[in-house]
């Protein structure tokens, strides 16, 4: 029996999926083998669906040939645990005041709860993620950070400013195909602390420092806003791209919660990171939308004198 072939071309309903994959090809080529540091925070940390989507994105990056490093804080979880214990949550200049008692809770929640949940989510897709804190292998060392409030230096307790970064352990994991997941706790570099002292470090700041020390291609900061607004609260227009110098001029006008994020982006691009991006973590798969599409989402910060290597305004993708 002969089978007559249909005339014309068969319509394949899955063809749009292939077109989407092809759109990502220039970006896959651009980022292949490059290190990407991702700061995980905001609602994405407490919404189960967003957490699952985040884990899928990070594993996708790894299988697509990138080298993702995840840095996380855990503000909502820390505040919740402090409330349970009857301890006060106080913030000054956008940073948590951290007493020795609070530091014990921070350490417990970050390394014992948030990190473990994230590692387990990533490892649902294979034995990829390894959890660490900045204390491990002396990855991060910090000294006391004094915040400025109304022109006065304010002691925030066990809040640290990163003084040095040692990337050897992270690079060894990356070379072995793993995904490092790092809690933003640093060992103390203050001589008066002796051995065993630790500091609570802002996760945005920690991610920026690690991105610079690793020579990362990009720093991605997930937060609860669409990006950097051009004229908030008068307008919700998001700045798509700006230079380090342009960002520096805007810093004094920013809300306190955005300052550490944007200061981190500024530090990163002025210390060798090609781009820094602030993304809306409330959008499922925001990482993939930002890094593998022509339009991108959020705000991208680029160095002053060097054009962005993957500017989203080029409809043809990177050269």
Give the tags:
globular, alpha/beta, disordered C terminus, four-stranded mixed sheet, eight-stranded mixed sheet, 9 helices, 14 strands, 319 residues
Task: Provide a descriptive summary of the structure in words.
There is one protein chain. This protein has helices at residues 15-31, 48-63, 75-85, 100-122, 168-175, 203-214, 244-250, 259-269, 286-291, and strands at residues 35-40, 67-72, 91-92, 95-96, 129-133, 140-149, 152-165, 179-183, 185-188, 198-200, 218-223, 241-243, 275-280, 299-302. The chain is 35% helix and 24% strand. A hairpin with a 2-residue loop joins strand 6 and strand 7. The N and C termini lie far apart (53 Å). 41% of the residues are buried. The chain is globular, with a radius of gyration of 21 Å. Strands 5-8-2-1-11-13-14-12 form an 8-stranded mixed β-sheet, sandwiched between helices. Strands 7-6-9-10 form a 4-stranded mixed β-sheet, with helices on one face. A two-stranded antiparallel sheet has the order 3-4. By secondary structure, it is α/β, with parallel strands linked by helices. It is built from 9 helices and 14 strands.
Largest sheet: 8 strands, mixed
Strand order of the largest sheet: 5-8-2-1-11-13-14-12
Low-pLDDT runs: 312-319
Number of strands: 14
Structural class: alpha/beta
Q: What is the helical fraction, as a range of percent?
A: 25-40%
Distance between the termini: 53 Å
Shape: globular
């Amino acid at each position: 029996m002969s089978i007559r072939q249909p005339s014309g071309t068969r319509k394949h309903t899955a063809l749009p999926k292939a077109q989407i994959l092809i759109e990502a090809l220039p970006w896959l080529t651009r980022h292949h083998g490059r290190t990407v540091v991702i700061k995980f925070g905001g609602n994405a940390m407490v919404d189960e669906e967003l957490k699952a989507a985040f884990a899928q994105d990070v594993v996708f990056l790894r299988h697509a040939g990138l080298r993702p490093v995840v840095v996380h804080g855990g503000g909502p979880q820390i505040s919740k645990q402090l409330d349970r214990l009857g301890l006060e949550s106080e913030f000054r200049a956008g940073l948590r005041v951290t007493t020795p008692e609070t530091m014990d809770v921070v350490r417990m929640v970050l390394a014992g709860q948030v990190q473990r949940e994230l590692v387990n989510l990533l490892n649902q897709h294979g034995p990829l993620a390894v959890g660490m804190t900045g204390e491990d292998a002396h990855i991060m060392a910090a000294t006391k950070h004094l915040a400025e409030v109304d022109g006065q230096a304010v002691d925030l307790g066990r809040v640290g400013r990163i003084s040095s970064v040692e990337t050897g352990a992270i690079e060894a994991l990356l070379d072995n195909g793993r995904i490092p997941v790092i809690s933003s706790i640093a060992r103390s570099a203050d001589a008066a602390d002796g051995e065993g002292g630790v500091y609570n470090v802002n996760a945005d700041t920690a991610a920026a420092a690690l991105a610079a020390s690793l020579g990362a291609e990009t720093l991605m900061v997930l937060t609860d806003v669409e990006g950097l607004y051009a004229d908030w609260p008068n307008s919700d227009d998001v700045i798509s791209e700006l230079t380090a110098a342009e960002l520096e001029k805007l810093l004094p006008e920013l809300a306190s919660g955005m300052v550490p994020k944007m200061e981190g982006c500024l530090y990163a691009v002025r210390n060798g990171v090609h781009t820094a991006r602030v993304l809306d973590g409330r959008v499922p798969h925001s990482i993939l939308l930002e890094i593998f599409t022509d339009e991108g989402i959020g705000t991208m910060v680029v160095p002053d004198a060097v054009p962005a290597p993957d500017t989203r305004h080029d409809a043809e993708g990177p050269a």
